[in-house]
Amino acid sequence: MSAPKKPEVVIIGRPNVGKSTLFNRLVGKKLALVDDQPGVTRDRRMGDAVIAGLHFTIVDTAGWEDEDELSLPGRMRKQTEASLAGADAAIFVIDARAGLTPLDEEIARYLREQEVPVVVVANKAEGKAGESGAMEAYALGLGEPLAMSAEHGEGIADLFGGLWPIIGAKAEEWEEAQDAARAEVEAMDEEDRPSGPLKLAIVGRPNAGKSTLINRLLGEDRLLTGPEAGITRDSIAIDWEWTDPKTGETREIRLIDTAGMRKKRNVTEKLEKLSVADARRAVDFAEVVVLLLDATQGLEHQDLKIASLVLEEGRALMIAINKWDVAEDASKLFNGIRGALDEGLAQVRGLPLLAVSAKTGKGLDQMLGAAFELRDSWSKRVPTSALNRWFDDALEANPPPAPGGKRIKLRYITQASTRPPRFVIFGSRLDLLPKSYERYLVNGIRAKLGFDAVPVRVTLKSPK
Ligand code: GDP
Ligand code: GDP
């Protein structure tokens, strides 16, 4: 059986309607030329696109572009036919401001004859300008047109809504195959000490400064930054090397960037939920996650939500307060956040908390140094002898209760796995062990065995 394929979506439309702009928006790179001159796109380009966790290959065709004639030259038609042949869906772009043209109708006629499902996008519909154009596009007979602005990133949620019913199942199948392959690799090095690149994800609300931070780290203007929220593409991985100024050692890092959990802002609630799912996926890749806060905003409920999600996934978490260069009343802010974290995230105490500035570069080397250290403890294995020595002491200092006069027996503990650390405690009558006693043991593991800031899992087991 061959491996599942990623769905393929072709962008079609006459020149200058915004195909390249849409392509760039979906791929998240400034790959294609965008120009007011019609026909500037020459090649058929392919890219990896993702909208809120929906992955597909996007193809931008030059197929209709070279001639201004109304009829389609045979050669061009062939090229477009070729790209439609392998496609699971087509996005047919029209210009909502310009209205329908004879060429649009010609293309529509052609598309109606094809098998491939079509989503009609009325582009350049930001503001009110495109409303009538979008309505007009009903006449193309290809279903409900989606009003969008590729340039301003509006209507992406609707595009998702249009594509999902067509390619969602195939995309999920593909993703499951990816997950399975990944799990296989992970199972192989499960027991190893951390080696290979540090897999690091930067998450946070829109405008926290994630793109700016990544640009700063990479020393290149690789991501777009700007005051508008949600400008980053959905999820990417970048490999690079960092030299620790403290040791002079060069270390590898694989950076995973998420677009952040977008709060409402031209984005429907549906997309908001999906982008949390998207970040969850990026978190799946990561060993260490940096939650970036904005010093001018402080810690909000949404931040705690993201933090809990990261910890639930068993990843190592650290918090960086960004924009420290413009922080007011710095020490009060820092202590306030420290307190709110310890209170809001009872499952982990003393998460690494740092102040940074993506703008000036302050604190970034410390942040990366701390991330490597955090990965070490997250990956640490405690020798069984040391573990049981601690266990005996803990039981002696505070013996388990004896409900109904019969003591609950805890016999021994082992560390079942690392990354995150998991422990199994064997004993009898374990179903009667109070939660508070379990917490006592978990806190002990954290404090006494060097797992302070990492999520620790403990399971109780009765031998059969
Ligand atoms: P293509 O020839 O179909 O690939 O079109 P391009 O992507 O090159 O875009 C043509 C022109 O339309 C460029 O000047 C873009 O900046 C502009 N454009 C693209 N999308 C939008 C949009 O959503 N709104 C507006 N107002 N202009 C857009
Ligand atoms: P993202 O949406 O989370 O990726 O945030 P961006 O990287 O786009 O940044 C949002 C805004 O915050 C931009 O205007 C940045 O210039 C600004 N910004 C980011 N980092 C800093 C910083 O360390 N200090 C200051 N003063 N501004 C920053």
Automatic annotation (TrEMBL):
Domain EngA-type G positions: 7-171, 198-379
Xref: Pfam families: KH_dom-like, MMR_HSR1
Top-level taxon: Bacteria
Keyword Repeat set for record: yes
UniProt keyword terms in alphabetical order: GTP-binding, Hydrolase, Nucleotide-binding, Repeat, Ribosome biogenesis
Binding annotation for GTP 1: 13-20, 60-64, 123-126
Record function comment: GTPase that plays an essential role in the late steps of ribosome biogenesis.
Subunit structure: Associates with the 50S ribosomal subunit.
Membership in a protein family: Belongs to the TRAFAC class TrmE-Era-EngA-EngB-Septin-like GTPase superfamily. EngA (Der) GTPase family.
Name of the protein described by the UniProt record: GTPase Der
Phylogenetic placement of the source organism: Bacteria, Pseudomonadati, Pseudomonadota, Alphaproteobacteria, Sphingomonadales
